[in-house]
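Weekly structure sync, notes
Attendees: PL (lead), two postdocs, one rotation student
Agenda item 3: pending single-chain targets
PL asked that the sequence for the first pending target be pasted directly into the notes so everyone works from the same version. It is reproduced below exactly as submitted, 150 residues in total.
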Amino acid sequence: MKETISQLQDIIAQYEPMLLQLKEEQLTAKPNPAKWSKKEIIGHLIDSALSNARRFVVAQYEDAPHIVYAQDTWVKASGYQNYDAADLISLWRLLNKHIVSILSNMNPELYSRTCVTGEPHTIEWLAADYNKHLLHHMHVILDREPVVYP
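Predicted structure, written out during the meeting:
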C-alpha cells in the first residue's frame, strides 16, 4: 500500500500544475454534446475521490459495504461545467490529499477488508485501481498517450 500512496502523491504533484496550465476554452470544450468536457472529467474525478474516500473509511468498520455511484447523474447534478477552473482543480487536489491521509492512517491489517462496487474488492485493490483510473483520465484531459483502463 505504501507504493500506492506514494504513487497518488506523485500524481497530485505531477498533474496539478499541468491542469492549471489549461485554458478555459480547452476545459469547457466538448468533443460532442454527448461527451464530457475536460472540466466535467475533472468533476468525475472529484466524484470518484468522494466515493473512494467513503469506501476506504466505511470498509474499515462495516463488512463489505455496497458503495457505488451513478457517474453521469453526479456530473450533471454537480454542474462542473460552470465551476471556476482553479476551484475545481483545487478541490481535486485537496480530495486526493485527503485520500492519501486516509490510506496513510489506516491500520495495515484493514487493507484486506472488502467493499462492494459492483463486485467485492479489497481496500488495497481499490486504492491501486483508483490510481489507474486517475491516470487514465489525466491522460485524456491533457491529450497525452492513452493509459488503458478497463
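Discussion points:
- The mean pLDDT is 96.
- The helical segments are 2-21, 24-28, 38-58, 71-78, 85-105, 123-141.
Action: rotation student to compare against the earlier draft before next sync.
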